[in-house]
Amino acid sequence: MSVDLEVQKAIRARLTTWGGVLALVPAAQILDTLQRPSAMPAILLGDSQAVDEGTSLRRTHTRVYHSLHVWQREASMKGVKTIAGEIRRAIHAGRLTMAAGMHCADVRVSSMRFLRDPDGEHSHGVVVVEALIAEVAS
Asked: FRET pair for 86, CA 20 to 30 Å: which of 34, 40, 58, 110?
C-alpha cells in the first residue's frame, strides 16, 4: 500500500466534500492530471514526497508532502488566493480519513505560494499539504 497515494486520495475526498471548496471549484475540476487544465478554475493533485519520519525502528511513521496546484483564468491573484484559503480551511478542519491500516496523526497546510503564468492570462497557486501518517495493524 502506497502511503502517499492514500494521502492523495484522502485529500481529494476532503476537498470534494468541503462546501467552501465546492463553491469555488466544481468537484469534477479537482483532478489528478499532468497538464494545465482546460476548464478553470481547477485544483490539480500534484507532486508528492514521502519521507520516513525516523521516530520508530519499525518504520511505521511517514511524513507526506503533497502539492496541490490551483489554476484560474484571471488577470489578478484574487481567485487562486481565495481558493487556496478555502483549501487551507478544509485541510485544517480535522485529520484526514485514511484507508484501513493507516492513521493520520497530523495534517496541515505548510506553505502556499502564488505565481503568474507567463501567458498573462492565468494565475497559479501551489498549496503544500503536510501529513504525518502512522501505519497501524488493521
From this structure: 34
Question: In the chain, which residues have pLDDT < 70?
Answer: 1, 56-57, 138
- What's this model's pTM, rounded to 2 decimal places? 0.92
Listing DSSP states for the chain in one string gives --HHHHHHHHHHHHHTT-HHHHTTS-GGGEE--SS--SSSSEEEEEEEEEEE-SS-TT--EEEEEEEEEEEEE-SSSHHHHHHHHHHHHHHTTSPPP--TTEEEEEEEEEEEEEEE-TTSSEEEEEEEEEEEEEE---
- pLDDT per residue over 65-91, tens digit each? 999 999 999 989 999 999 999 999 999
The CATH-assigned architecture of domain 3-135 is 2-Layer Sandwich (3.30)
Interstrand relation of 61-73 and 42-52 (parallel, antiparallel or unpaired): antiparallel
> Does 26 sit behind a cis peptide bond, omega within 30 degrees of 0 on the bond before it?
no
- Which grid cell is 82? 481565495
